[in-house]
Structure formats: C-alpha cells, structure tokens
Amino acid sequence: MGEVKAIMTEYNCALCQKNFDSAEALQMHNQAKHAEAVKPPLLTGKQKKKALNWIIVAVIVGFLIFGTTLLVKRGGGGSSDSTPLPDFDVPKKPIHWHPHLTIRIDGKGIPIPKDIGLGSVHQPIHTHETDGVLHLENNNPSKQTVVLGFFFKVWGKKFNKDCIFDYCTDKGTLKMYVNGKENTEYGNYFMQDKDEILIEYTSTGGG
C-alpha cells in the first residue's frame, strides 16, 4: 500500500508569528500571551447595531419632547399677554363654564372653528361648534388655563393688548368688551360662566 501522508493545518499567531497544530493550542497561547490584545469586543456587531438603533430612537424622542415643550411655551404659534396674571382666586372644584366669544375685524365677524382643542389631547378649554361658545371643562383649574389668552394658545393664534391675529395697534385700534363694558385685561382676563366677550379691531381709516 502507498504511504498515506497526514495533512497538517498550521494555526498561526498573527501577533508573534508562532505556529500551532490546533485551534485550541492557538487559543490557549493567545489567552496566555496576548490576553489584552485579543480581548473580545464589549459588543458584538449585532449588539452594536441594536445599540445604535436605540440611540437614534432616543435622539428622535428627545427632539419631539423639545419641540413639544417649545410649542407649548410659544402657545402653538400664538401669543398672549406677557404681563403677570392678575391676582384672582382660582376655583378649587371642577368647572364646566361656557363664555361666549365674538371677534370683529373692521366690523366683520370672524368665525371661530369648531373642535379647537379637541384631538389626541383634550384641552381644558375647547370648542364644539362654530357658535363662539368656549367650553371650559376643567377638573383642576389653574390661573393659566382659565384666562382668555389660554384659548388663543390652544387655537394657535395671536392675541394680546397689541394684536389680534396679524392686526396690531400700529395700524388700528384694538378694544375688548366683557358683558358690554370695556376691559383692558385682554389675554389675562379670567373668564366666567356665560360671559359675553367681544374683541374688536378697527383699522386706521376704517379698513
């Protein structure tokens, strides 16, 4: 019979170039001589990818939270009086009030849309119809949520002592009336049940 030659596979240490006759021997050598150099990575490729995905999600959530906070501070694009709120006693019990709001620009009534403040978040002040009735349905009233300016924040419209929407006192006159009497609290006015509120802007020269 012919001579059978054994085929030997050599295992080479990439760090010191020594050869070994088995993977186990090479592994033992690496653990003994090059433990720090061959230390396994803290994360596998799959784990790294998963960690990266979580980081991306965390960044997106962070931006969403930041954007939401900024939006609330800015009143959803709207604006109210920056002056401190007047001193008044906030109801200590839940309220369900219905003041009525009318807005006139140069004598023309401005419709107030229905379902303002209704959606994924149910705001403590909102509308149901286009009749101008504001629904204050609030189980925990606070100074910030019972004033007229809060409705405009929810609506995302500008209202303060100087402007209603984009109509400002540099080009006209802005007045507010509550139950027939002129009121200068504007966005800081503490609304009451059944109030009749009129906001009226008249351009210089009548339009």
The largest sheet, given as strand count, sense and whether it forms a barrel, is:
5 strands, mixed
Provide the succession of SSEs. Answer: EEHHEEEEEHEEEEE
Strand order of the largest sheet: 5-4-12-10-11
Low-pLDDT ranges: 68-79
User: What's the tally of helices?
Assistant: 3
CATH architecture of one domain: Beta Complex
* DSSP strand content: 15-25%
Mean pLDDT: 82
Cα-to-Cα separation, first versus last residue:
116 Å
What this model shows, in words?
The protein is an alpha+beta fold. Among the domains are: about 10-40; about 95-205, Ferric Hydroxamate Uptake Protein, Chain A, domain 1. The protein has helices at about 25-35, 45-75, 150-155, and strands spanning about 10, 20, 95, 100-105, 110, 125, 135-140, 165, 165-170, 170-180, 180, 195-205. Mean pLDDT is about 80; it is low at about 70-80.
